[in-house]
Amino acid sequence: MRLLFFAALLAASASIAAAQQVMDGSGTPYGDSVASDIAASLIGLANDPYSAQIAKLRASSGSDDVICGLVNLKSPSGGYTGFQPFYFNLKTKSIDLRQSSGC
User: Fold this and answer.
1) Helix 32-41 crosses helix 2-18 at what angle (to 10 degrees)?
2) In angstroms, rounded to a whole number, what is the distance separating the alpha carbons of residues 84 and 63?
3) Above 90 in pLDDT, residue 100?
4) CA quadruple 13, 73, 97, 69: dihedral sign
5) Residue 15, CB half-sphere, CA atoms under 13 Å: how many?
6) Cys bridge to 36: 17, 23, 47, 82, which one at CB 3.0-4.6 A?
7) How far is 22 from 76, CA to CA, in rounded Å?
């Protein structure tokens, strides 16, 4: 019974990540998996990573393996914090949310 519960929980979380969309359609050149990879990289960094609003994705001028964009995250009180720049490394599937991201 526990195994069935955890399998259902895993399937539900995978479908949530797959449902992540880029708000302005700028993710189209990168494929559907990039938005879900970005959302997955926010786990542990954001209060609600699956409600992240992602926009203005573009290739970095410095590296083919880096995507730059904007992300709007929810605060602990449930409101959005405003769009902030980020960069996402396609090879390591890691995200950097610092303002000076180098994009």
Assistant:
1) 120
2) 20
3) no
4) positive
5) 6
6) 17
7) 22
Sole residue written with tokens 């949530």: 16
Q: What type of residue is 101?
A: S
pLDDT attached to residue 18: 45
The CA distance from 83 to 102, in Å, is: 16
Residue 90 scores a pLDDT above 90: yes
Q: Which two tokens stand for residue 65?
A: 């393996």
In the numeric block, which tokens belong to residue 85?
């720049």
> 3-state SS of 57-101?
EEECCCCCCEEEEEEEEECCCCCEEEEEEEEEECCCCEEECCCCC
